[in-house]
Structure formats: structure tokens, C-alpha cells
User: Fold this.
Amino acid sequence: MAFHVTASDGYRLAARRYSVPEPRARIVMAGATGVPQGFYRRFASHAAGAGFEVVTFDYRGIGESAPATLRGFRMDYRDWGRLDLAAVVDEIADDHVSTHLVAHSYGGQALGLLPDPSRLQSMHAFGTGTGWSGYMPRLEQLRVRVLWDLAGPVVTRSAGYLAWSRLGLGEDLPLDVYRQWKRWCRYPHHYFEDPDISAEMVALFDKVDIPIVAINSTDDRWIPPVSRDAFMSFYRNAQVTARDIRPSDVGATSLGHMGYFRQDATPLWDQVLADLKG
Assistant:
């Protein structure tokens, strides 16, 4: 069922609820940068079939939550967590059924941006890390440099936003997201090394004390396990369980950064749901 959630600053977000009668728990699906909520529909349907109510949503500026044009659209990259994810969690969390976060890439960072992370009972994060190219294989490092330093500036200068769709790389991104993402990915520890905001970010992440399971594939060229470990070290008050997986562990030939939520990753989803069943 499609519905809308209004963030605390008045921005209207598109969301979808996969309802079940008497859910055993609720799951909020927090997606990756530039990935629309429709990409996660298979996971959501699978979890609903196992008795979990699932809510997916599009961050502001993305998918069905995008304005008519991204030219001139202003936002902070952190708004996706502190405003958008926060609004969805507030909308569906209650005292009767536990609410859990399943996250992909940026979504695993967004937990630490929530004003009140205690409204969630756990997080399972796939492919979350710092995004620093130094952790990537050499060929991926070169590809990322081309994106940040050559293609990105040219495209944003002409379009007024990161027209990723022109490059065949996914959803278009607001200009501010591109600029901040590029800046923070230059640090081995992401924004925790940004002198302008590092103290603020460390204090925010110290508020998180729920269990976290951080899952990364060994063939994830963008966020390998070492990148995950660098980021997850800042969830200092949470019990973080790191899981390294190989594609063969789930019967797949590859997973990469996007394969966690493709159909052949169903065994991964079942592991998450088994954890939530306790």
C-alpha cells in the first residue's frame, strides 16, 4: 500500500507498506544512495511472506520523493537520516510490536543520524562503510576518481545536479548530496574526520546502543569488509557483529555492492529474518 510520510521540516516522502495481519515485528528498509525504494520490493515481499510488516520509502530528492526538477534543490546529505528516516520510524514504531532497521549502504550510516535511535530494536546493515577509495581494489579506485573528479564536475556543471542517469549509474542526485558525498569519501573514516563536523557526528553515533549486524561481501568492490570496520567502529556503544560473506555462501556467482537485494540473495534475507525471530 502506497502512502506518504511528512518529515519534521514539512517535506513529503513517498513510502510503501507491505502489511501482514498481526505482524511478528516491523522492518523499516533504509536504502542506499541513489537507489529508489522499488529496488527493495523483492526483499520486502519476502519478509512480509514470513510474517513481518515492511515499510520502504524514497529519500527526499530520489524516486517518488523527488521534486519536479533537481536544479536548485537544496538539502544536506544527512537529512536522509535525521529527517527522512526519522520520520518513517516515528510513523510506524510503537510500544506493541518491535521495529527493526534493515539497511543498505547509506542506510546503515543513517541509524547514527536519528534523533532517537532507541525507537529501533536492531539494525542489519548490508554494504555499509566509509566509501573511501583507498579501501577499494585498484581498478575501482580509478573508476571512483573518474566519477568524482572528471564525470561528476562536468555533469553537475551542465545539469545543476548529479545527473547519474546519464552515466547509467542510477537515480539522479541533488547537487548537495554529490558535493558532501564526494568530500566525505575522501576521508578514511568518512565525516568522522571532517574537522567541521567530526565532534558532532561522534556524539550522535555515541547515542546508538542497539545491536547491529554488519554484513559485507568479500566481492563488494565499493565497500569491502575493511571499509565496513572503519565505519562501524564509531558505533562505539552498540554491540556490532561483523559478518563477512562470499557469494558462494548464498549460491551466487557474485554479489558486489548491489547484489544483497537481488533475488538470488534470498538466503541472506532468511538469515536476517531468523535473527529477528530470535
In short: The domain at 2-277 is CATH 3.40.50.1820 (Rossmann fold). The mean pLDDT is 95. The chain has one domain: 2-277. Helices lie at 41-49, 79-92, 106-110, 138-159, 175-184, 198-205, 225-232, 266-277.
